[in-house]
Amino acid sequence: MNKMLKAFGIVLGMSAALAGVAQAAPTEVRIGVALEPPMLDPTAGAAEAIDIVVYQNIFEGLTRIDQNGAVQPGLAESWTISDDGLTYTFKLHDGVTFHDGTTFDADDVKFTFDRILGENSVNAHKEFYTPIKSITVVDPLTVTMTLDHVIGRFLFDLGRGDAVIVAPESADNNANEPIGTGPFAFVQWDKGSRVVLEAYGPYWGEPVHLTKATYVFISDTATVTNALLAGDIDGTNNFAAEALAVFEGNPQFKVLVGTTEGETILATNNRKAPFDNLKVRQAMAHAIDRKAIIDGATYGYGVPIGAPFAPHNPYYVDLTNTYPFDIAAAKALLTEAGYPDGFAATLKLPPVAYARLSGQIIASQFAAIGIKLSLVNVEWAQWLEDVYTNKDFDLTIVSHVEPFDIGNYANPDYYFGYDNKQFQALIETLNGTTDEAKRKELAIEAQTILANDAVNGYLFELAQTGVWNAKLTGMWQNSPIEGLVLRDIAWTE
Amino acid sequence: MRRLLSHPSLAIGLIATLAFALLGLLSLVWTPFPITEIDIGRRFLGPTAAHWLGTDNLGRDMVSLLMSGTLTSFTVALLAVAIGVGIGVPLGLAAVAWGGWVEWLVLRLSDFVFAFPAVIVAILITTLVGPGAVNAIVAIGIFNIPVFARVARGGALSIATLDFVAAAQLAGLGNARIALRHLLPNIMSLIIVQGTIQMSLGILSEAGLSYIGLGTQPPETSLGLMLRDAQSLFLLHPLLTIIPGLCIVAIVIALNIAGDGLRDAIDPRLRQGNRNVLA
Fold first, then answer.
1. Count of domains in chain B?
2. Considering the domain boundaries, does residue B89 fall inside one?
3. CB within 8 A of B242, min separation 6: which ones?
C-alpha cells in the first residue's frame, strides 16, 4: 500500500513538473463567456455577446473607450472640433492595415458611416449617427464630419462597437468572418463552442501581450465552475454571483467585482392594458422590494437604481425612494386604477440567472398585491423575436448594458413603448447640449421624469463579477462599455 | 391480496411508493411552509428544528418543496402512463383482434414513435407551445403509447390462440367484443406491471425534462427543477442537490421493486423462480 502511495506520489510529482514546463511562458488565454454571439458583426446587431468577442479586439473605431469610460484616440490619432461644435476633422493613423492585408484610409471611414446611415442599414443604433450631415474625405489620412446639430457625446458614440471601421472589401462577410484593424485577427468560429483569435502581427498600435485568445461559450454555471477549477479556462468576465464564494479566498484565482452599464429593469409593455395606466405602474413600483431582489438574485452584488441610469455616472441622481416599498400604497393605487383584486400577467424571462431569480422573487412580491404573474422562460433568440422585435409581452426582466442608454426611452417604437413627447424633447435638448453643468441638469430632469412615470420597474445595476486565474493581469474590472478587451491582458510569473 | 403481499420485495416497493405518493398528496392540503413564500433572509439554512432539511436559494423550506415536487413528479408520470395505457392498449388489442393491415399499421406507427426519444418530442412540443408540466406529460405520454401497444399486442397474441377465443369467435362475437371481454382481462396483469415500470421511467423523464428547463416551470416545482436550481450551488450547498437527487433515486427504486414484485406475483410463467432455466 505504501509503495503504491509512493508510486502515485511520483506520478503526481512528474505531472506537476510537466505542467510547470507547459506553464513556463503562456501567451494564450481561454476565456469562458456565457453567451455565444448570434454573429460577429458589431455594426449589425444589438447583442452584447458580439461586442464581448470583437470590440477593440478585432474591430476598432475612430475613438476607443478605455476602462474608465473615457474617450481615447483610436484609428484617429487626433481631431479638431470647429468652434460651433458642428465640424469634426479627424487625422487618421498611418500604416494601418485590415487583417486581410488591405490598407485602411479615409475612404473606409466614409464607407463605414455611409453603410450605417444607408437605406439598408441594420445598425442597432443608427440614431447615434443620423445627425451626421456629411462626411468628406480630404486626403487619405484626413476626414471631416459635419453634424446638423451639436451632439454632446459624439466622440464617445464614435467609440462604440456600433461605429467600428469596416472595409468595403470585407464588410459583407463580417457576420461570419470578421475583418477589422484590431490587435487580434479572427481565426475560426466553431459554432456552439468557441471563437479563436490570434494576435495580428502587423498591428499598427502598441503590441499586445497575448498570441492567442479563445472564447469558450459555456452558459451553465456549474460547468463554468468546473472548467475554472480544472484549468480548462483561465477566467470569465462575468461569473454567477451565487457561486462566487467558491473562488473567494482561493489563492489560485482572483475575483474582480466592478460596475457595468447594465441597468436591470422589469420592462413593462406600456402599450398594453393595464400597464398603460400610470397608477398600475406606480402600484407595481411600490410592490417591488429592491433589497430582497438584490440579495436574492445578485447575492448582494447589485446596486439599487430608481431610474434607468448607472449609479457611477457623474450625472446620476438617487431616485430609489420615488416609490418606496409599500404594500398598502400599492394596493390603494391598484384599487384606484380599477383593479382592487389585482390581475394576471405573464413575465417572460431570458436565460440569465439574474432574470430567472428576480422573476421568481418579483412574482412572489406581486402576489402580495394580487398581481398573479405566470413565469415564461424563453431562450435569447425567442426573447429577441417575441419581446424586442414583436413587442409581444406583458413584462420581462432584462439588463440594458449600453452606456448612457436613457435615450432609448425617447424612442416610442422601442420595445417597451414609452411615448412621452416632453421626454423626447428633453432628450433632444440634452443631446444638443455640450455645457457640462447644463447637461447634468437635463440628465437629472430626464431621470426624474422616468422615475415618476414608473415606465419600467427599476431594479438594480448589474455588477461585473469576473473570476480569473491569479496570474493574469490587465482585465477590466469595470465595464463602462460592452466588451471584453484583451489589449492589456498578460500572464505574470 | 395476501398472496401478493407475501412477496417481500413487492411489499417493500408498494409501501415505499405509497409513502411517497401520500407525502405528495399531503402537499395539496398542507406543507410545513408555503412553497411560494420567498424569504431571502433565511436562505441556505442547514437542517434546523423548523426546517428539517434546511432552505433553498430563495429561502423556501426544503421539506415543503420536496413534498410538492414529489406530487408534480408523480402526477406527470401517472398521467403520462394514463395516456400510454389509454391509447396504446386499445391499439395493441386492435392489432391482434383485426390483424392484417391494422396490425401492420399499429406496429409501424410504434416503430415511428419509438424512433423519437421523449426528450426530442418534448423539445418539439416546447418549441411549438412553450415549456410546462402539461407539455412534459404529453411528451412522455406519447412516448408511452408504443410501449403499451406492444405489451398489449404481445400478451394478447398468446391469448388469442387459446380455445376459448376460438369458441367466442364461433359464438359470433365481433372482434371488438372479443378484445374487450376476453383479451383485455387476461393481459391486465401485464399492463399493471408495465405501468409500474413506465411510472418510474416517467419520473426520471420528468426530472430530466425539468432539469433542462423543458418541464415544470417555476413557481411550480418538481424534483428535476430542484436539481436544476441547485446545481450551480453544488460546491457551496451540496445538500440542495443531494436531497432531491436521493428522493428521485428512492422513488424510482421503490417503483422498480414494486414492478418486479408485481411481475413475480402475477406472471405465472415466472413463478417457478430460479429453478426455471429460462427465467
1. 1
2. yes
3. none
